[in-house]
Fold:
Amino acid sequence: MAERSERPAVLVADDDAALRRATAEYLRKQGFEVMEASNGLEVLHQVGLLRPSAVVLDLMMPRLGGLDALKQIRASDPAVNVTKPVDPGYLAMSVAAALAWKGLYAG
Structure:
């Protein structure tokens, strides 16, 4: 298994590469460790392998849609926080609040 940093890990999943990169970069600047996936199958692989604290999950993706990926994530690891892409400021606040509530992020 990959070595984890002290920063909470967030997986950003979106088939729109520009949106995915922009969201990932914004979260990195907010202090999160960020991984990326471009489709639902990659999401499931990375969630199983890397165990991120949170997943920013687009609902409309190729190979496996976000809703199907969400169902499988919930079935295998209900502790993973999952949110959909939103305004970057709200996204960082939402991810940080959810992880802080679980004691995984101190800001």
User: Anything to note?
Assistant: The CA atoms of residues 44 and 69 lie 7 Å apart. The first helix runs from residue 17 to 29.
